[in-house]
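W.,

You were right to be curious about this one. When I first looked at the sequence I had no strong expectations either way, so I just let the prediction run and decided to look at it fresh. Below is the sequence, 321 residues in total, followed by the output.
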Amino acid sequence: MSIARAERLVNLVLCLLSTRQFLSADRIRAIVPGYNDAPNTEAFSRMFERDKTELRELGIPLETGRSTGFDAVDGYRIARRDYELGDIDLEPDEAAAVALASRLWDSPELTGAAHGAIIKLRAAGVDVDQSSPAIVEPKVRTAEPAFSPLLAAVQEGKAVTFSYRRPNPAELKIRTIEPWGVVSWRGRWYVVGHDRDRNAPRCFRVSRIVGDVELVGEAGAVHRPDNINLLDFVATTGSEPSPTATAKVWVAKGRAAGVRRRAKVLGSREVGCVSGDDVELELRFPESAASWLAGFGPDVLVLEPEVLRKSVYERLLEAAK
């Protein structure tokens, strides 16, 4: 199944779960993100029929009916009482597997789509059941590019090498590790393994890995020790809060108000014939600052530290592809 179709099905389920009304096909087309891509009514009808069939094959109870006697056509909804699961008893190992799966499923992309679908429902005048618990909540970020290759390395039993950005002192170093697993702790992903450079077990925050992760060596060469609990290891060695970092950036005149609100102006000058100011920022979350600053595009130029400047440059190059 394509990503676009999967997102559309999630949006459709959220829409039909969040209303007590029966929604007509035309109203669903106007509300649910993804259906407005259909070039005409006939194409939408084929798309919608396929999606309804898919939901029913997945066991989702899709109801058909009319909210009032004045409705001209049938509509659709999902009854929460039929959709929700009853009490389930799991063994400890089964519960652990479900917990891991739920961590892998959580992502900001899905959360954004779900939130947008609910907003569109309310804006369209649909009676959203606000008393129901949140359907999708952001828990763990899985958008880091390094996540997938690290997980693949663990599954294949291969070593990896990558560039790792340390926050204090700000520097970039090449690390080679034998990964034992990738685990989440307090909303962040960590890879745990044997650090060949230090000849000792270490954990690394995935969001601080810069560039590509390269798999090295033969498959099956890496084995996880039986006597180590990865989550406990991260909790005791890798969960310290990130220190505050200072950065100096140039900001174009009259632009990037979000940066200016948090900055101290050091002086004014031109960069490439564009007037602006050199400012100083205190970054409480240095590991996520690169994405934030890159979002301002040419209106912001990072001067120092060098590792932050390179990180912003890499994100701009990636966005330009």
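Here's what jumped out at me. Confidence is low (pLDDT under 50) at residues 105-111, 130-142. And, maybe more interesting for your project: The CA atoms of residues 172 and 178 lie 19 Å apart.

Coffee later to discuss?

I.
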